[in-house]
């Protein structure tokens, strides 16, 4: 059971992630790295929505996966890769600078990792 210390640590890491992404935009005067926040915040949603739609039966093994779950994992993976590749593409095209790219990627990964950790720690167990 996760407690108050877990909430404090996760909120601190989330604040550092947002700070890095905002600083990558504000320090270099270009606000394109803020798109990374949107992709990493939206990334867990397809997995959560599709896992709710899967509705496993009692007779099906836990190890087997549904098409909905696979589709959600695919879209989540796509959004995570897009959140990493978007700043790299911007830096390659000269839209943002390389330090802004590094700060944006690290901040985005911290945001996504915090969201995933929060859902893992505070997930309710279903008892039948």
UniProtKB/TrEMBL annotation:
<feature type="transmembrane region" description="Helical">
    <location>
        <begin position="96"/>
        <end position="122"/>
    </location>
</feature>
<comment type="similarity">
    <text>Belongs to the OB-RGRP/VPS55 family.</text>
</comment>
<dbReference type="InterPro" id="IPR007262">
    <property type="entry name" value="Vps55/LEPROT"/>
</dbReference>
<dbReference type="GO" id="GO:0034424">
    <property type="term" value="C:Vps55/Vps68 complex"/>
</dbReference>
<keyword id="KW-0472">Membrane</keyword>
<protein>
    <submittedName>
        <fullName>Vacuolar protein sorting 55</fullName>
    </submittedName>
</protein>
<feature type="transmembrane region" description="Helical">
    <location>
        <begin position="71"/>
        <end position="90"/>
    </location>
</feature>
<keyword id="KW-1133">Transmembrane helix</keyword>
<keyword id="KW-0812">Transmembrane</keyword>
<feature type="transmembrane region" description="Helical">
    <location>
        <begin position="7"/>
        <end position="25"/>
    </location>
</feature>
<dbReference type="Pfam" id="PF04133">
    <property type="entry name" value="Vps55"/>
</dbReference>
<dbReference type="GO" id="GO:0032511">
    <property type="term" value="P:late endosome to vacuole transport via multivesicular body sorting pathway"/>
</dbReference>
